[in-house]
# Entry
Amino acid sequence: MAPDAAGTAEEIRGAAHGTAPVPLSVLDLVTVGAGRTATDALRTSVDIARLAESRGFHRYWVAEHHSMPGVASSSPAVILAHLAAHTDRIRLGSGGVMLPNHAPLVIAEQFGTLEAMAPGRVDLGLGRAPGTDGATAAALRRTDRLNEGADDFPQQLAELIRFLDDDFPDGHPYRRIHAVPGPVQATSPGGVQSAHRPPVWLLGSSGFSARLAGTLGLPFAFAHHFSAQNTIPALDLYRESFRPSAVLDAPYALIGVSALATDDEKEARRQVLAAALNMVRLRTGRPGLVPTPEEAEAEAYDFSPMEQEFVQSWNSNVIHGTADEVRAGLDDLHKRTGADELMLTANAHGGDVRLRSYELIADAYGLPTPA
# Structure
């Protein structure tokens, strides 16, 4: 394995702290609660990123979503630049950028810029879903032909990696096109630009990206938080498909986990009910701001039988309760899946509740405390 590739592997594989079984990380949807603004949500993101850095969380990712009033993460690269200005060490990345929504060159330029802002601590996580509904995806892509199949995504991925590495072969129509900032600057006269580029991750909620990540020898992130029934099959497929590469000599898989810790078990139930109501509205074509627990409780008896079933199913995959209960749930999930890293997402109405959740989980595992 080449020195640069070994460095990349070191960036991918985090270190566990305290009594945590594996590295812990954060997935941020930049949720906006009723009565709050996007500005409030982004300030919370900065607060959580700073807390995560100070307590030894390994990485902080932002997910791309569109046309959802309660999710202010439509522009991961912009948010990551903001977080880079307010942190010093924690890895920052996309969880993920939806590759079919963007030209590969644009993504390479954006993440080359982020790498220049925060050298050696940027991840590029890629997904193939639109992160929204079909009509919004068509508006993003300026076409009604939405391709997310096996033929298009690998080709887009290969093109993006070529731009990141600046290594299109001679005769390729893009041979003389360069993503800047990027490696081309190191080969220009007087160039001192680092040739390093962000590690690429593949994200998925089914077997497609699991198999592709394994075949290419890339790290894999699975969306357990909304596709729990597919977690173990996808991880098994990833490990079975894995082929050593210049990036990794062995599989590395993280899973996204919905986890919320509060000082009181009853409060945890109230908060996750509100988050579930938000999902009910989204799934039934009524997306909005994340409701308050009081609003969710008021609607509790108005849920239809089908909606009640959805709420129960959704919340069964949310690890919630006191810090000790959440720690036990995370430990059990790790044992069942063998995940190499747990990436926690706390969905709640208030930013203070989300911030407190990460603090409680850090305390429960004895993660480092700020000097």
Observations:
- The CA atoms of residues 151 and 183 lie 28 Å apart.
- Residues 1-7 have pLDDT under 50 and may be disordered.
- The longest strand covers residues 253-261.
- The two ends are 37 Å apart (CA to CA).
